[in-house]
Amino acid sequence: MRIDKQKIKQLNDQALPEHRESFxxxxxxxxxxxxDSKAIVEKLKEFQVAVPSxxxxxxxxxxxxxxxxxxxxxxxxxIADVGLLxxxxxxxxxxxxxxxxxxxxxxQATKELAASHGxxxxxxxxxxxxxxxxxxxxxxxxxxxxxxxxxxxxxxxHNLEVIKYGDALGSKSLTVWLADGSSFPGQLNFKxxxxxxxxxxxxxxxxxxxxxxxxxxxxxxxxxxxxxxxxDWGTSHMLADKLGDRAYSLVDLGHHLPNTNIEQIVATLMMxxxxxxxxxxxxxxxxxxxxxxALKPYQLFLIFNELVDGMEDPSSDNPYPAWMIxxxxxxxxxxxxxxxxxxxxxxxxxxxxLVDRTALEEARENNDPALAQEIxxxxxxxxxxxxxxxxxxxxxxxxxxxxxxxxxxxxxxLITQRGEKVISTGL
Amino acid sequence: MRIDKQKIKQLNDQALPEHRESFxxxxxxxxxxxxDSKAIVEKLKEFQVAVPSxxxxxxxxxxxxxxxxxxxxxxxxxIADVGLLxxxxxxxxxxxxxxxxxxxxxxQATKELAASHGxxxxxxxxxxxxxxxxxxxxxxxxxxxxxxxxxxxxxxxHNLEVIKYGDALGSKSLTVWLADGSSFPGQLNFKxxxxxxxxxxxxxxxxxxxxxxxxxxxxxxxxxxxxxxxxDWGTSHMLADKLGDRAYSLVDLGHHLPNTNIEQIVATLMMxxxxxxxxxxxxxxxxxxxxxxALKPYQLFLIFNELVDGMEDPSSDNPYPAWMIxxxxxxxxxxxxxxxxxxxxxxxxxxxxLVDRTALEEARENNDPALAQEIxxxxxxxxxxxxxxxxxxxxxxxxxxxxxxxxxxxxxxLITQRGEKVISTGL
Amino acid sequence: MRIDKQKIKQLNDQALPEHRESFxxxxxxxxxxxxDSKAIVEKLKEFQVAVPSxxxxxxxxxxxxxxxxxxxxxxxxxIADVGLLxxxxxxxxxxxxxxxxxxxxxxQATKELAASHGxxxxxxxxxxxxxxxxxxxxxxxxxxxxxxxxxxxxxxxHNLEVIKYGDALGSKSLTVWLADGSSFPGQLNFKxxxxxxxxxxxxxxxxxxxxxxxxxxxxxxxxxxxxxxxxDWGTSHMLADKLGDRAYSLVDLGHHLPNTNIEQIVATLMMxxxxxxxxxxxxxxxxxxxxxxALKPYQLFLIFNELVDGMEDPSSDNPYPAWMIxxxxxxxxxxxxxxxxxxxxxxxxxxxxLVDRTALEEARENNDPALAQEIxxxxxxxxxxxxxxxxxxxxxxxxxxxxxxxxxxxxxxLITQRGEKVISTGL
Amino acid sequence: MRIDKQKIKQLNDQALPEHRESFxxxxxxxxxxxxDSKAIVEKLKEFQVAVPSxxxxxxxxxxxxxxxxxxxxxxxxxIADVGLLxxxxxxxxxxxxxxxxxxxxxxQATKELAASHGxxxxxxxxxxxxxxxxxxxxxxxxxxxxxxxxxxxxxxxHNLEVIKYGDALGSKSLTVWLADGSSFPGQLNFKxxxxxxxxxxxxxxxxxxxxxxxxxxxxxxxxxxxxxxxxDWGTSHMLADKLGDRAYSLVDLGHHLPNTNIEQIVATLMMxxxxxxxxxxxxxxxxxxxxxxALKPYQLFLIFNELVDGMEDPSSDNPYPAWMIxxxxxxxxxxxxxxxxxxxxxxxxxxxxLVDRTALEEARENNDPALAQEIxxxxxxxxxxxxxxxxxxxxxxxxxxxxxxxxxxxxxxLITQRGEKVISTGL
Lengths: 427, 427, 427, 427
Hints:
Strand content of chain A: 5-15%
Oligomer: homotetramer
Largest sheet of chain A: 6 strands, parallel
Largest interface: B-C, 56 and 56 residues
CATH topology of chain A: TIM Barrel
Distance between the termini of chain A: 22 Å
Shape of chain A: globular
Number of domains of chain A: 1
CATH architecture of chain A: Alpha-Beta Barrel
Radius of gyration of chain A: 22 Å
Order of helices and strands of chain A: HHEEEHEHEEHEEHEEHEHEHEHHHHHH
CATH class of chain A: Alpha Beta
C-alpha cells in the first residue's frame, strides 16, 4: 500500500499553525546563538537511514516469538513497508537486503519498485550464521573461520553471490557479520580462527567490484558465548587494515561490552579513515536490539557529536558512513518502532549540529570541563523536534509520522491486505 | 536404550588399578588433615541433581538452531536419556518436567518407567512465556502480571494444571519462572505489575497440596530487555515472604547482573530459611546457559561453600534445596554436556566438603583474610576426582562417565534407534 | 562571602527579555497540552536538595588528588559555600553534615549562620569507614559488623554521638553508609556479619529521638572488593524491615551493579513505603561520583518519573524522601560542579512533572508500549530550562547560575579570601 | 633482614616425607599421561615474576588507608622485602622500580644490594599521574596528551629520566601507564589526545637505548571516569604499531571492561608479535587489584594456556614477556599477599604446561568442544602443588612459603627492626 499524499497533507495542515510557531521561536533562539536553522533543516532532509529487509516483521527471542498482523511476506511487501516509512518520515530512503532471506527474483522489477518508492539499495548483508535447508555444509562450528576448508569455501561463495545480487541492484558495499566463535574455553584456536577468517575475507574482498566497500562488523558475544572471532573494534580494524583500502570497520551500537565508550571508538576509526558503517539500535543489557534512543539518548548524541565532527573535518579521508537501523521488533508494531528509531536518530543528529564546535574546542584547550559540558548540554537540551518536523514538511512527509500512521490506520489496512498470520522470511 | 551393566563394569575394571592408587593416595592425604574420605564418598553418593525434560535436545539462540541426531522425541525417550545419564553418573536420579512440553499421557506408566531407571520426579515447571497453538489469550504482554484479568486467570489455571500433573507423578514442588516484564521504559507500571503477580501467585499457592513448596525464580532481563517483574532476589524474597511458609526463592546461576556476589545471596536466603531451589549452569556474559563449571569453577565452589554451610547448620530451618541443571546445549551432544555439568557440580560439592570450617571460622574471628583464603584454596586445589569416581564405582556407575559414553557409542546407538532428525518438544 | 543581591539582579535583568519570550512560548505549548506552568514553577521552587559538607572541596582517587584553590577550610566556610550555591540556584537549601569531619563547635552559632543563608540541616552522616587519629579500635576489618564486640560498640557510640550533634542542629534523620565487607572470598562469615550489623543498627535505632528516621544505604563494592555487608536494596530493605517503622532504605545512584534497573527499585521501595532518601550523582563504570546528569540524563528522568509517581500517589505512605548530592569533584570547580548537578536534578524533576500520567496509565493498560514511550519522551524532549529559570527568578536566584558565578568571579574572590592551598576536612 | 637458610631447611625437612610421597604419586600419574615431571619442574624453577617497588607497603582506596607495621621506608628495605619473597618462593627474582617514588641514590650500591638477594631490575615505570611537590606543571588534565606543549614536554622528560635510571640499573624496558583521559563528555578531543600522546611516545621511544623495549599499557577507566586516551588493547596496539618494532602492548589483568575475553587478546597480540608484558592481579568489579587467583583462577589458567601456546610456538616472533605483579595490599600483610599471588601464578603456569596440546588441536580440528573442554579441565583439575613445592625445594626455597613466613615470625621481626608506623613511599 501507499498512503494518499493528500491525507498526509490534511493532517499536516491541521498541525501547521502550532508547528510554525514553535519552529519560528526555535529559529529565533538558535539564530541569536549563531545557528542557521535553514541550513540545519537542509542537512536533516539529506540524512537518510537504510532499513534492513528483515526488520519489517516481528522479531523474537530464544524463548519464543509473538507475531503481529499484516507482516510483509514477500520482498515486494517489504519494499512497500520501507516505502511507507519513507513517505511518512522522509528519512528512510534506502533498503538493505539480507541474502538469502530476500533474494530478488526479477532484479529489474525490484529496482523499479524500489525507485517508485524513492528508495535505493544500500549495503547488502550475507548470512553464514544459519543453515539453509539445501545447504551442503553446516555452519554449526563456524563459517569463514571453519576448520574445514570446504565449509569456508561455501561461505566465501555465498558472500560472492550476495555481492552479485547487490551489484545488480545498485548496492556499493557488503556488510559481513559473523557469528563465528566458540561457546567453550578450548573449543577454538584463536589464532587459526583469525587467520582463516582473514584468508576468507581476502577472497571475498578480491571478488568485489572495484567501487565496492567491505564492512567488517564486530561483536563480543552471542550467539557464541565464550568467544567470537571478531570480538571488538581492534580485531575488526586489524582485519580491515590487512584487507586493503576499501575495507572498513562497522560499528553496531549493541555490539559492545558493558560501559564501553563507543563514541571514542567512532572518533578513533574516523581519525584513521576506517569507519565504514553504523548500525543503530539501543540496549540496556546486551545486544537487546530495542528502539534507537529508547534507553540512552545522551550516548547517541555523544556518538553523533563525534560522527558530525568526523564528517565535517576537511582533513579526514573517512568515507561518508553507511547508516542502518538494526533492531528487533518483538513487542511493538515494527513500522511504529522504526519510525521511533528514525526520529531518535535525527534528533541526535540535529542536536549534534547545534554544538558550538569553536567554543567547545576552546574550552578543551583551556582544560575547562565544566564549560565543555555546558556547551554539549546546551545543544542536547534544546528541543529540536521542530527542526525535524520542518525538514519532513518541506520534503512532503508527515509533521507527526507516528500520529499520521495511527490516524490513517495503516496497520489495519495492511492486515486487511495481507492477513493476520503472515510471517516474514528470516524470522 | 539402556547400557548393559556388564559393559560399564568391564570399562571400570580396566581403570580400577589406577583409580585405587589415586583414591588411596588421596585418602591418606586427606586423612592426615582430619577428613574421612569414606564419609565424603557417602555424601557424594547421596547427592542427586534433577535433569529437566527439555534439556535432552539441542538448544538454540534467536539466530538459529543446529540440530544434533538421535534426540528424544517423546517423554519416554527423555526419561530414557536421563536414565542413561544416571546409569553412568549415578548423580542424575531425578527428572524435572516442563508443562506443556512434556505432559504425561499415562501417569502410572510414566511413573513406572521412571522408577525402572531409578528416577523420581522433582519440581515441575510451568510455562507462561510462550503461546501454545490452542491458547485463548496471548502472553505477549505478560502472564501473571498481565493488565487483563482474563489473561492472568488463564496463566493461574495453567499453573494449577501443572501442579495436578506433578502431584500425580509424585512431585512436591512447583517452580515458577516468569518472562513477565517490559522491553521499553514506560511500558509497565512497576507497582501494578508486582501487585498483580503477587495476587496470581497467591491463587497458585492456595491451589498447591499441603505438602508442596512453591519456588519463585528471579531474572534481571531476557526475554524482556528493560525490566522484569521479578528482577532480583530481593523481589523474589518479598513475594515469597508475602506468600507464606511454603514459598521460597529459587536461584539460577545465570540470572544475575554482571559481577553479582551470588554466594552471598545464597547465604542470606539460607539464613532466613528461604532458599528453595538452585538451577545450575555457567555463563560469561548473560544467561548463556553453558555447561556448569565451564567458565567459573571457583565461583561454583564458593557457592557450594555457602550451600554446605547452610545445609550443615543445625540451627537453620532452610529445607534441603531442590537441585536442577538448567543449561542449553547448542553445540555439544546434550548428554555429554550434562555429564560434564554433573561432574562439575559434584567436584565443587566435594571441594566444599573439604573446607576446614573450624579453622575457617577461627581465621574469620581473628580478621585473618590471608589464612581464610589459604583454607578455602587448600580445599579447592585438591584434586577430588578420585572421590567422585569412587562414589560412582560404589554405586555401580562408570568410573569415567564420558569416556564410557564415547567408548560404548551411546549416541550412535541412539541415532540408529531414533534417527537423525527428531526434534525434542519445546525446542 | 555572599554575593551582592543587586549584582544577581543586574545579570538577570539583562537576560530577562529572552527568558520571558522562551518562558511564555513554553507556557503556551504546555498549556495546550493541559499543563499549568505556574503550578510546575511552584513545585520547582519548593524542591530543595541537600549539599553535604564534604562536597565543597576537590575530591580525589586512590591515585592522587589535584587541589583547587579557595576551598573551605572550616565548617563556617562550608556553610558559606552552600549559601552561595543556594543564593544562585535557590535549590540548595539544606546542608548535610558529616561527622567527625565537620563537628560544630558552637551549635547555636552554627545554626544561626546556616539560617542566615537560608539553610537547614538535613540528614547527618556517620563515618566508620576511616580511622580517626585518636580512635581506640581500628575499622580496618569492619565497624558495625566487626567480629570484635568492642569495635562494634565504638562504632555504635559514634553513631549515637552523630545523632546528638544532628539533634542539636535540627536534623531529623541519620544516614548510615557502611564500608563493611570483605575483599577476599572466605574473609567474612556472611551470616554473622549480617546479624552483627543488624544488632548494631538496632542499638543505634533505639538511640534515635522519637521523630527521627534511620536511612540504611547499600553498595555492592568499594572500598571492599569481594563483598559488602549491605550489598543491595534487598539486604538494605531486610534490615530496615527488621529495624522498625522509622528505618528506611537509601538509594545512591552510583551504588549498583552494571545495568541495574534503578527506577524499578525506587518504585518497589516506595510501593512498600520504605524509600527514605536518595543520593544523586552519575557514573559510567562504578561509583564514579561525577556530576549528576553528565552521562545518563534519561535514566535520571526515568527515576524521577517513579519518584513523582510515588510522591503524588495519595495511597502511598512513603515519607517525602531526603535528597542529597553525593558526588566527588576531582576536576571541576566544586561549586560549578554542584550547580550543574542541581540543574540536572531539577531538569529531570520538571520533565517528570510533564508526563501525562493519565494517558500513560491508559497506554499501559492497553499494552501499547509504543504509545507509552511517546508519552515519556514527549515530556523528556521538552526543553524545560525556562521553567527552572523562572523558578529561580521568582525566588530571587540567578537566571543563569553558572554564568553568574563566572561573571561575578566568585572563585577568584574565594581564593583571595581563603588562599590557594586550603584543604577541606575529610579530603 | 634475611632469613637464615638453615631455618628454611629445617622446616622443609619436617615436611619432606609427605612432599616426597605426593610428588612421586603425581609424577607417576603424569608420567602415565606422557608428561615429564622433571622437565616441568625445571620450567617452574626458571619462571620469575617481578615485584614492583611500591607493592611492599599497605595500599589504600579513595576512602582511606589502614597501615600495617614493619613496612619498608627506603628503597633498600624494599629490595630486602623482595629478597625475602625470593628466598621463600624462588619465584620473585626481579624488582620493578617506580620513579619518582624509588630513585636510587647510589646506583652501584643498589645494584649490588639487589644482586646479593639474587634480584635483577626488570621494567622501570614512570609516573605522570600524580603531581610531585616540586613539579612545575600539573598533570591534573593529562600528561603525554596534555593540551599544553610544555606539560607534555615535562612528562616526556620525566620518562627519559626514568630510562636513564633504569639503564644504570640494568633494566631493559620502560612501562608507560597513563591516567590521561577525561571524566566528562566533551572534556577531551579524542583525536587530538591520541595524536599528542603518539607524538610524546615517539619522543620517549627515540630516547630509549637501542636494546630497550617500550610497553604501552591500556586501561578503560580510573582515575578518569569517562574516557582514557588508551582505553583498550586496540588503541595500545595502534600506538605500538606506529611507534616501531620495539614498542609493545602490555596487558594488566584488571584493566578490562566486565566480561572481556582477555585470553583472546593475549593470543591475538602474541600472534602479531606485540605482547610485551603482563601485569598480574585479580578482580571482581573493576581494577580491584586483589591477590592473583583470589577470584578467577580458571581465567588465569586460560590466559596461561595462551601464553604457553605463544611462548612455545617456534614460528612466533613475540619476545619473552615481562611478568609483574601489580596488586594493592589493603588488608593482608603485603608479603603474604605477594606470596599467595606468586603461588597462584605458578599454579596456573604449571596447569597450562599439563595441557595435551596435540590432543587439543585435534579436538579443535574435529569440532569437538566437549573433548576440548575435557582436555583443558583435566590439566586444570590436577593438583599441581607438589610440582611447585619440588621446584622450590630444588632451588633451596621453602616447601611452604607462607607457612615458613608465619612460623619464622618474619613480620614480627620486620616490625621490631622498622617500627609500627613507617609508610612506604608512593602510598
